[in-house]
Specification:
The structure holds 2 protein chains of 2 kinds.
Chain A (H helix, E strand, L loop, with lengths): L3 H23 L10 E16 L3 E7 L5 E10 L4 E7 L2 E8 L3 E15 L22 H14 L4 H11 L7 H9 L2 H11 L4 E8 L10 E7 L4 E4 L12 E5 L6 E4 L1 E16 H6 L17 H10 L2 H15 L8 H12 L1 H22 L6 H25 L13 H18 L1 H23 L1 H9 L2 H13 L9 H4 L7
Antiparallel strand pairs in A: 1-6, 1-12, 2-5, 2-11, 3-6, 4-5, 7-8, 7-10, 8-9
Helix pairs in contact in A: 1-15, 2-3, 2-4, 8-9, 8-13, 8-15, 9-10, 9-13, 10-11, 10-12, 11-12, 12-13
Chain B lengths: L6 H7 L4 H12 L5 H5 L1 H10 L7 E5 L2 H4 L2 H5 L5 E5 L9 E3 L1 E3 L2 E3 L5 E2 L1 H12 L12 E5 L17 E7 L2 E9 L15 E5 L6 E6 L2 E3 L17 H15 L3 E9 L3 E8 L5 H6 L4 H8 L7 H11 L5 H7 L1
Antiparallel strand pairs in B: 1-7, 2-3, 2-7, 4-5, 5-6, 8-9, 8-13, 9-10, 10-11, 11-12, 13-14
Helix pairs in contact in B: 8-11
């Protein structure tokens, strides 16, 4: 009987769990600890135009997740307009449409963007070189001379771009540069020159994020490709590199805003920065429907809260597994401690412990009377259930009267489980005496407290809720423990006398 | 730290822990399909009858709550009897009535019970109070065993039984369980019975323990344990070894009793025998189980018993300490 398939299964589970966890951390920016603060920008784009009474089509570029930023959520406000999001030539766009509109129109688009320094978006494809560049005289000579000058002083596409931009700097502008600038806009001109020299480049539009700014507009940048990488250049200064606060709004070389059926169109931006806990930032992430991104966060909030508890149960169960298999503690009912621990989470530990002991103690007294009545088992346990409900009601009312609101949380105890606990303890008492009741009851309570401490730990809650891969790792771990043939910790004490002689 | 030992020392002694027992022996050699044969004492009894293994006489069974009302008629004329749940475990729910005086049923401890107490107990058994998982159960009423007088001074109330661990049909280790006042006449070690390790070769006492600590005498009768010898020992081992063929379970705890008239009898079987037997013997099971695992299949019961008596012979520690 080979154990190989077993270890393979454990290995696969472990690796899959680790991979899923790492993927969520590195690709989706889910932090390891719940306390980390993340900066989130709220960016609002306002599109203004005057409609001419005809059908209107507004086509605007939208930002997507990129280096340094992760798009969380987006909303639009555009009463009366039809709206669709389209993916076009590697860029996302929003298209508003309406059959008839007149006068001043405002459309709003709001995006929440998470500052994510480790964000790794898919690699940008190098745009095709434009071959259709034709210069009129005398600009052709000027362009050729400028390209040759920069070419001679450069080694690769980036240095070439840098040299070219230098030559357009205010203080170094030569005749050629001045001539070209009379006819062309600076950024398109640079892209044109780069393309002509065989260096793939395009114009992109970005938004400089500054807290509390309003009525901002996009700035244009030159994006240069060298086959493997790309770099951004500021056309005004020639500086290379993306400023940390630059959000690329339109990155595929197309127009930012196109309006048909309207005039005087423009788009302005306002933005606001705020810090929020990383966990909350994660929750706001767009639910992406791929298998790897399979996440509880795509569920409605109420179900999420439910899952937060459900996903903790394996942690509690792991505590039970460890205490029973590796330590050898006796509990009354295998997973009863986990359920008690779940109740403790609702009630807080001290209240929970006092409540549990009170209910079980009173229950045992009443159960000992029930045992004289000679009842059938199911009827007797049912009687115990009703008794437990009675005890809990009385304690709740008493606690409330005395102003102890904490006492009200006693209702979170699983009553059926408590009843069975009382029933089992009572039988244990009759058969094995109070000592065994103390051992098993104490063992159960000890296990419940440990499970509670594990399950109530903020870090554990964060990890189990945000990394589903952890469940696979737990599974692998529990399978391994299930395979453990060594001694339990308490057996080292139990079997001690044998080793004495 | 005085109370604790190290895994290395336990391993050197060949002690088997709970986890190893569960995975390596019970999990591997006991087919779950066969469990009902031993978990249901009624089935065990009927099976044993077919295989010619003697068991205590069956007075009757109670299967319905309706039948509980008629238990008085069933018990009439019997002086001593034992009521047990067919699917009980760990000695739970076993009621021993030593004798009947008028309307009173007297337990070995002297406690008197009325007929309604007995009815309640039987009713509890039927509703599954003592069975695994609380499943509805059947109550068995057996004749009380007339145990061998020669052993009476080693026990306090109750019947001492002999637990033999049978591995793949080989009797590997044995102990006698003597009930005490602390165990309320029951023969379960964790309830306070004294366990006396027995030499597989001769059936004589090796060492005694109570509550996992060494003992040289019986706590209630004060009788020393060294002189304890089981009569009819080879027959008993043969009977125990035969339970392998009977059940097909590879790792089996057989509980035997000695009847004055009928000799060794099978009381019940256990598919998950406890580990306290190692304490009673002062030796781990590991070496013996490893040896048996190397033996070929299909050896006759008598040959297995001979093999075990030859290989697992031990000298009493009790005499050695008495001499010292």
């Amino acid at each position: 009987m080979s154990r190989l398939p077993f270890y393979l299964l454990v290995g696969v589970l472990f690796l899959a769990g680790t991979a899923m966890t790492l993927h969520r951390h590195y690709q989706l920016e889910v932090p390891w600890t719940p306390g980390e603060q993340r900066q989130v920008w709220e960016v609002e784009a306002q599109v203004n135009f005057t409609a001419l009474g005809d059908p209107v089509l507004v086509d605007m570029a939208l930002p997507s997740t990129q280096e340094g930023f992760r798009l969380l959520t987006e909303h639009t406000a555009s009463p009366g307009y039809g709206l669709s999001f389209v993916e076009e030539n590697g860029g996302r766009r929003a298209q508003w449409s309406i059959r008839e509109a007149t006068g001043s129109q405002q459309l709003y688009y709001t995006a929440q963007v998470l500052v994510a320094p480790d964000s790794r978006p898919p690699r940008l494809d190098t745009p095709p070189l434009r071959r259709d560049i034709v210069w009129e005289r005398p600009y052709d000579t000027a362009a050729t001379q400028m390209i040759e000058r920069a070419w001679g002083r450069s080694a690769d596409p980036f240095t070439f771009a840098r040299e070219l931009l230098h030559d357009f700097n205010e203080e170094r502008q030569g005749e050629n540069a001045r001539l070209l600038l009379t006819q062309f806009e600076r950024t398109p001109l640079l892209v044109r020159l780069l393309n002509q020299a065989g260096v793939p480049a395009r114009e992109v539009s970005g938004l400089m994020l500054e807290d509390g700014r309003r009525r901002q507009s996009l700035t244009s940048w030159v994006q240069v490709f060298d086959g493997q990488h790309w770099a951004l250049f500021d056309p005004a200064t020639g500086a290379q590199g993306r400023p940390d606060n630059l959000l690329i709004w339109e990155g595929s070389g197309q127009a930012v805003l196109e309006v048909q059926g309207g005039s005087n169109s423009r788009v302005t931006f306002s933005m606001l920065a705020r810090n929020q806990p990383a966990a909350a930032a994660v929750r706001n992430q767009l639910a992406e429907d791929t298998l790897l991104n399979f996440s509880i966060h795509s569920l409605p909030l109420e179900e999420q809260a439910l899952f937060q508890t459900i996903l903790l149960i394996p942690i509690g169960a792991l505590v039970v597994v460890v205490l029973r298999i590796l330590v050898g503690i006796k509990t009354s009912g295998t997973f009863m401690p986990v359920l008690i621990a779940l109740a403790f989470i609702q009630t807080s530990l001290a209240t929970g412990l006092i409540g549990f002991l009170l209910v079980v103690a009173v229950g045992l007294v009443i159960r000992s009377y029930l045992s004289h009545l000679n009842l059938l088992l199911v009827a007797r346990v049912t009687a115990v259930i009703i008794t437990v409900i009675g005890i809990i009601s009385v304690f709740s009312v008493l606690a409330y009267r005395f102003g102890l609101n904490a006492g009200l949380t006693i209702t979170f105890f699983p009553m059926i489980i408590l009843s069975w606990t009382i029933e089992r303890m009572s039988i244990l008492w009759e058969e094995e005496g109070p000592k065994e009741v103390l051992i098993q009851g104490g063992g159960s309570l000890f296990t419940a407290v440990l499970a509670y401490l594990a399950m109530n730990n903020p870090w554990v809650r964060h990890i189990t809720f945000n990394f589903l891969g952890i469940q696979l790792i737990l599974m692998a771990l529990i399978l391994m423990i299930g395979n453990y043939t060594g001694y339990r910790l308490l057996e080292l004490r139990r079997f001690k006398p044998v080793t004495e002689d | 730290m005085r109370e604790w030992t190290t895994p290395g020392k336990l391993r050197a002694k060949g002690i088997i822990g709970m986890n190893r027992r569960n995975i390596r022996y019970i999990g591997r050699y006991n087919n779950r399909r066969l469990y009902p044969l031993v978990d249901d004492k009624l089935q065990t009894k009927l099976l044993a009858e077919r295989f010619g293994i003697t068991t205590p006489a069956l007075i009757g069974t109670v299967t319905t709550q309706f039948g509980v009302k008629h238990i008085g008629e069933l018990l009439a004329g019997h002086q001593g009897f034992v009521i047990k749940p067919a699917k009980g475990s760990g000695g739970k729910g076993i009621l021993v009535v030593e004798r009947v005086e008028g309307n009173d049923y007297i337990k070995p401890s002297g406690v008197r019970m009325s007929l309604s107490d007995i009815e309640r107990h039987v009713s509890n058994i039927l509703s599954g109070l003592y069975s695994l998982g609380g499943a509805p159960d059947v109550a068995l009423i057996e004749a009380l065993i007339n145990f061998d007088e020669g052993l009476s001074e080693y026990t306090y109330e109750g019947v001492p039984d002999i637990r033999v661990i049978v591995f793949k049909g080989y009797p590997v280790m044995a102990m006698m369980r003597l009930s005490t006042a602390a165990s309320d006449g029951k023969a379960n070690l964790h309830q306070g019975a004294v366990g006396v390790g027995l030499d597989i070769a001769s059936g004589t006492a090796i060492r005694g323990v109570q509550f996992d600590r060494t003992r040289h005498d019986h706590p209630d009768t004060g009788h020393e344990l060294a002189s304890l010898t089981i009569p009819d020992w080879p027959t008993l081992l043969l009977l125990a070894a035969g339970c392998y063929e009977m059940t097909g379970l590879g790792y089996l705890g057989t509980d035997m009793v000695l009847d004055r008239d009928q000799g060794p009898m099978l009381l019940e079987l256990n598919a998950r025998p406890g580990l306290a037997i190692q304490m009673a013997n002062g030796e781990g099971l590991r070496r013996r189980l490893d040896l048996v695992e190397k033996q070929p299949e299909g050896v006759a019961a008598q040959a297995r018993v001979d093999f075990a008596r030859h290989h697992f012979a031990r000298r009493s520690e009790l005499e050695a300490t008495a001499e010292a």
